[in-house]
Amino acid sequence: MQIKTKFGTLNRSTFKKRLKTALDVKSLRDSWQALFDLATRKRYDCPDSRLVERLPRTNSAPVEDKLSEDIYIIFHFIEGENNYSDMKSCISKWALKHNYETRSSQRLNFFRSDCISQSPKAPVNDNALQRTDEDDDRMSTIFAQIAIMNDKSEEKFSRLENQLSDIITQTENDILNLKSNLVETTKKLEEANSHIEQMNIKEEKLINDNRGMYFQMSSIATRENEIKELSSQVHQHLNVIMKNLTALRER
Predict the structure, then answer these.
(1) Distance in angstroms (rounded) separating the CA atoms of residues 168 and 175
(2) Are 35 and 15 in contact (CB under 8 A)?
(3) Is the N or the C terminus of the chain less surrounded, counting Cβ atoms within 10 Å?
(4) Does a structural domain hold residue 189?
(5) What percent of the chain has pLDDT over 90?
(6) CA-to-CA distance for 33 and 1, rounded, in angstroms?
(7) SS3 state of residue 170
(8) Could you give the angle at the alpha carbon of 84 between the alpha carbons of 80 and 89, nearest 5°?
(9) What positions belong to coiled-coil segments (predicted)?
(10) Residue 207 located in a structural domain
């Protein structure tokens, strides 16, 4: 499949989405490994390692998401758009270290062999040969044990890498959820503040209206008092008039 022709110009999200639509998990894995093999041949700075094994995990991103992400990174590494640091998320750190140590050991063995081949031959001693054979047996046993330990360590490191990758993915998802919740909470707080401001405006208006009513009632009470006083004066005048009329009649 020509990834460059069909997907090369797409952005990261579209690249991965269309790649997952076009390929199943097996095809994705085949393309994933083939691209890395191509990268090791085309890029001199490609790390001498292997890819992190992508396996289905509980509470983790689907395998096809991880594979498509790796393919995107490796493809752009081959195209020269990514560098070694971009490849770190795809590479097994344990295998990288193991290969480095293996190459160092090979160089050391070559150096020892070269030194032995150039040294003068000593007389053969049967006891020395026997000790050498025993040493070789012990070394073979030790190397066999080391190989077993390396295999177990590789499996353990691979498992730890996958677990770490899952934890990182889960943490990133949690952070995204927290950000989303924060945005939603902030929006609700803004709405609540707006509602409180509207309530404060209504309350202030109600207080002002009550003040106006209080002043009106005070004015009415004052008028009532004035009317009562005037009525009292009228009654007094009427009483005086009635007395005068009574006096006139008696005459």
Answers:
(1) 10
(2) no
(3) C
(4) no
(5) 3
(6) 13
(7) helix
(8) 115
(9) 150-209
(10) no
Give the Cα separation of 29 and 67 in Å (integer): 7
> In residues, how long is the chain?
251
Residue pointed to by tokens 């995107």: 72
Tokens of residue 77, six digits:
């590494």
Q: Which tens digit of pLDDT belongs to each residue from 235-251?
A: 888 888 988 888 888 87
Mind listing the pLDDT tens digit for each residue in 92-121?
Answer: 765 444 443 444 444 434 444 444 444 454
Q: Is 61 inside any structural domain?
A: yes
CA angle 184, 186, 187 (to 5 degrees): 65
Q: DSSP H helical segments within 61-125, as ranges?
A: 63-78, 84-87, 93-118
The position carrying tokens 């009635």 is 242
pLDDT in tens, 176-194: 888 888 898 898 989 988 8
Identity of the amino acid at 170? Q
Name the domain count of the chain. 1
Tokens of 220: 């009415």
